[in-house]
Write a structure and sequence with these properties.
By secondary structure, the protein is mostly helical. Helices cover about 50% and strands about 10% of the residues. Helix 1 crosses helix 3.
């Protein structure tokens, strides 16, 4: 498994704060990101307790939002 770049994680945290919530499918398309890398970054942020899942939304999917620690 590749190491996740801290700069990329910071970018994701900032995107979660700006989007509230961030929907990965839409974000990956807008930012021209490989979905696997995006999911790995979001998983790492969730593991660190900085983001959490939001309610699933039809047409948008599973969202992510900052936790109090994020």
């Amino acid at each position: 498994m590749a190491t996740i770049d801290e700069e990329f994680l910071l970018h994701l945290l900032e995107a979660c704060a700006a989007s509230a919530p961030l929907y990965p499918a839409r974000f990956a398309q807008e930012e021209h990101l490989e979905r696997g890398n995006l999911d790995a970054g979001l998983d790492e942020l969730r593991r660190r307790g900085l983001v959490q899942f939001t309610e699933w939304v039809k047409g948008a999917g599973q969202g992510y939002a900052l936790t109090d620690a994020g």
